[in-house]
Fold this protein.
Amino acid sequence: MIQPHAVWADVEKLRETAPLVHNITNFVVMNTTANALLAIGASPVMAHAAEEVTDMVAIASALVINIGTLSPDWVDAMRLAMSAASKKKIPIVFDPVGAGATPYRTNTCKLLLNAVRPTIIRGNASEIMALLNEDIKTKGVDSTMSSISAQDAAKALAIRYQCVVVVSGEIDVITDGTDVMLVKNGHPMMPKVTGMGCTATALIGAFAAIQPNPLLAATHAMAVMSICGEMAARHSAGPATLQLHIIDSFYNLTGSDIDTILI
Amino acid sequence: MIQPHAVWADVEKLRETAPLVHNITNFVVMNTTANALLAIGASPVMAHAAEEVTDMVAIASALVINIGTLSPDWVDAMRLAMSAASKKKIPIVFDPVGAGATPYRTNTCKLLLNAVRPTIIRGNASEIMALLNEDIKTKGVDSTMSSISAQDAAKALAIRYQCVVVVSGEIDVITDGTDVMLVKNGHPMMPKVTGMGCTATALIGAFAAIQPNPLLAATHAMAVMSICGEMAARHSAGPATLQLHIIDSFYNLTGSDIDTILI
Amino acid sequence: MIQPHAVWADVEKLRETAPLVHNITNFVVMNTTANALLAIGASPVMAHAAEEVTDMVAIASALVINIGTLSPDWVDAMRLAMSAASKKKIPIVFDPVGAGATPYRTNTCKLLLNAVRPTIIRGNASEIMALLNEDIKTKGVDSTMSSISAQDAAKALAIRYQCVVVVSGEIDVITDGTDVMLVKNGHPMMPKVTGMGCTATALIGAFAAIQPNPLLAATHAMAVMSICGEMAARHSAGPATLQLHIIDSFYNLTGSDIDTILI
């Protein structure tokens, strides 16, 4: 069971401490990601040059790695940043966008995850399946299977990398390989917004910056994501207004909203 | 004459099949492009590394190339992707953003178009003129002449590259060098939204993925673009709300909207 | 004192002449920046390849340099573009995003500013302090001190580089090292929108393209920014709607709005 008051306590801590979240993410979502992090209360920074990622990690409270529009230079910087974050013992959240779509994506994920243990991995069902079993082929960046069907794969992946794994979807599955948390809120229009998963990953980074238990950090972030998605959908005519209103909802979220909406 | 039912049939086919559209496009429009493609019913993916573009083309149903923020690495990847798409015989839609503004843009267009025949080229009047006659100089990325005035240039360009050419503007001109289709819908605030032409190019990619006749694919995409622009403008206070509402309109578009609004 | 009619005269001149503003800016804000420039009446172009920046400067009326997501290739292009702009005597507006956060950012600023004198520098208080005194450390890209407290630093920086310096914040400070202009409009939600400072920098570029006095250009741009921020906040439920409505406000701004709202 997810405790509404514990979710809210993390939101309050985020807003009070405004942790710096360092993102090496994709071109498609940079604006939305930065706005989402600011709206929930974190302080986002985007920096991808090998010349500075180590120094940026040194002042950051969490590192978010997202391979959505990867290329060799960026992958090198991701590896450097992950190593620095690991040494500094700040949380590392990894988003394997499009894993399984091309060998380059799948291999890059393997390279990075084998080099540095992440704290939390978040993907859709297809991506999580592809990380576990490289024979799985995915169709681009959109999932073709349900999140619940990937629950066993998520557990196995969590055990392999000794981390927390989040499978987002209609029901979000969060597991450390043993315990499983489910987030049942959300709205069917959310997958029609590009990078909604990337926003979730960034939020997980923000929560992990202030919540030392990664299973709780990931669960609370997904709960906030799903609750705000529902709040936003109430007055959204389509996916573009939904993308907008979910960010406003992060900004306006109250403890009472969480109490009322969380299933 | 554009057939409303044929436009609608393509929209329905898009929504049913959700074709994967591979975009190598510019940094300014990546988010809007991905959201537009999702909203109309396609599945967008952005991938620009030489290490993966060939593999991404292998699972895609259309390739969209847009040179808006070009650099040598990206141009190399565009060429690789175009070659792979040509071999696989999936449609290639090319957007010569800012052709004529700098020799690098004009020369890159020439290099790419001479290496691989595109299926459809879409630009504004200045860009189409600059592609045809490299002595034409343009002012940045905004057109300084009317689309109708570029009709002959469009025909000549279509003949040169044996492709369909779209000149977007107040009236959109679509030609295969012989036949000419005109889309007369649209709204004067549309050019005040950045990357509206890039969105049109991406939509053309989506329609070409499911409509084998490129003249019809381009015409239907431009009709949807213009109709949705009109629908969005009805409740938009300025260009930013227009950018938002046009994406919601792609999502909500019905056959009845097309019947009612198409001129 | 800021003259409302002089602010308005510059807005009108912008809309009449639509100057081409060449931006080498960061990935996070490219879409918002381009839309802001279009909405106020300028013609934006984004181009960052060393292969074309000199040619793009040759047709531009102002150059905006923003190091928000810098890397060596981009810094090389920035230097080339700044040299070309300096030779052509068009205004150069420089935004030291995150100066002080990493040595790479601080050193890059020093390198560029020492190579080519900018016309106007705009940053938040932390960034301006870090440019003046490299021992200052900042927290990512968000300021941790008030703009007014950086007034002396701004004057010293303006004298060092013989340029105008803008410190944006609750009160915007604009100085050429001798005179100081203050813009007291604005809204507390504005710092919750990512890249609002980058938008301000781009607007300064647009105003500098048509207003030869850089102190006035920067002041008028900041006045428009702050007035439109207030107009937008009236009907914004959160930072995402604020980001949207401020662009619509640029588009709809009238002389009467300036008269009524400017403090």
The mean pLDDT of chain A is 96.
